[in-house]
Known about the structure:
By secondary structure, the protein is an all-alpha fold. 54% of the residues lie in helices and 2% in strands. The protein has 7 helices and 2 strands. The protein has helices at residues 2-22, 35-45, 54-61, 84-99, 103-113, 118-144, 181-190, and strands at residues 66-67, 76-77. It has a two-stranded antiparallel sheet with strand order 1-2. A hairpin with an 8-residue loop joins strand 1 (66-67) and strand 2 (76-77). Helix 3 crosses helix 6 (118-144), helix 4 crosses helix 5 (103-113) and helix 5 runs antiparallel to helix 6.
Amino acid sequence: MPERVYQRSKQADKELKGLVAATGTTLMDLHGIGPSGAARLLVEVGTITRFPDRGHFASWNGTAPIDASSGDQARHRLSRAGTRQINRVLHIMATVQLRNPTEGRAYVDRKKAAGKPSMEAMRALKRHLSDIVYRQMINDATATTATGPGGHRGTSTNSSVTGSHPHAGSSEKSLPEPADNKLRTSLLAAS
């Protein structure tokens, strides 16, 4: 039984990886984001260009810091607002980076060396990763809207702009004989 569940989970993960790759995103290239995290980001964010800058994106996903200073002590805390699903993806990404010798691990080590507590260093890492994800998604959006062979955005060699003979569907072809008026007459009489 557990082996069968494991195999089904592995197959579903493989299918999801294929679906995410078909979108053309490079989110899975980031350390700590797998197929489910990339899919969650794509679904929840939608069009990344709706966020004017990385600060708006961080505020939306709950990684923007909130001032929690008191007296002479200046500090920030993690926001509980924002889209929790995306915040979770960023938290998993941060945890994976902390467990491995990555740039995220070096970032946290620098923060701790500067005197930041562990929780504040983690908050700063999540904000840093939010900026990285934002930049990656902007780069992906820019790459997909680059001009194609026809000089227009979104064109491809399969589009009718670049083809010499457009395809005529069955509704565009002439009928072999005149239309039957009997059916039309009976519908008018019934109403």
